Amino acid sequence: MTTGFAPAAQPSPTRSAIAAQVRDVVKTYGRGDTAVRALDGVNLEIAAERFTAVMGPSGSGKSTLMHALAGLDTINAGQVLLGDTDLSGLGERKRTLLRRDRIGFVFQSFNLVPTLTAAENIVLPLPLAGRPPDRAWIDDLVATLGLGDRLRHRPAELSGGQQQRVAVARALAARPQIVFADEPTGNLDSRAGEALLSFLRHAAHELGQTIVMVTHDPNAAAFADRVVFLADGRVVGDLAEPTAAAILSRMASIDAPATRKTR
Ligand SMILES: Nc1ncnc2c1ncn2[C@@H]1O[C@H](COP(=O)(O)OP(=O)(O)OP(=O)(O)O)[C@@H](O)[C@H]1O
Predict the structure, then answer these.
(1) Ranges of the chain whose pLDDT falls below 70
(2) Is the distance from the beta carbon of residue 38 to the nearest atom of ligand 1 less than 6 Å?
(3) How far, in Å, from the CA of 257 to the mean position of ligand 1?
(4) How close is the Cα of 65 to the center of ligand 1, in Å?
(5) Is residue 163 part of a domain?
(6) What pLDDT, on a 0 to 100 scale, did the predictor assign at position 262?
């Protein structure tokens, strides 16, 4: 799966240049003396049709930021916009529908249904989204991800890399507005990881897919178009066209939070 990528899909003309953004977002866990301000007035714009990586020390707020952007969690203050939709004003039910219709997820643990074949796993979210499968698009995805001869296999009969590629095909099957990937290469060997990251980059550039990836790995983040660095719940750095060396050096300058302040 290193070359032979499928032909480029036409990017949607209705897509704005900013796929998602957070404005002055505050997220606090707990109350009183034990309150933790996981996001501390964070601002960030995610460019459409680009591959953005989010890095930062443990506890810096990466997962919380991703959950806020994906409407998985409520925030205490500020605004979260997905396209033109303000998630902060939506109730739980509307956020659930929005996630189903407009967002794709890829997790470190693949999260495939063990009793279903690869093909069934890939199209699983589509009936939920109320959409018939776009066969040509899914065939392209399967071919590009090199899964053509594995479609009838169940997850246990696939390698880790193949399972993750099935999970990526599933995340992209409904052509979501944005895909969030949380440590997608965390359980893969370096070769399978690099193949997956090459595909994510290709999906952004050639297929017009907006991708946000949380990672601890500078080599993984170097596949992205941009790396955003978080510390203490804020954006503290931003690198365009990053190299692993530049990422490492930036990470070294960002201290791990010694003791998180409660406010
Ligand atoms: N459900 C929760 N209840 C209380 N505190 C939480 C909760 N979730 C996260 N936190 C705290 O919020 C802060 C940010 O956590 P978050 O998981 O977003 O960080 P992270 O950068 O993703 O960390 P890691 O790299 O270790 O996964 C941390 O101090 C964490 O302990």
Answers:
(1) 1-16, 129, 255-263
(2) yes
(3) 12
(4) 10
(5) yes
(6) 46
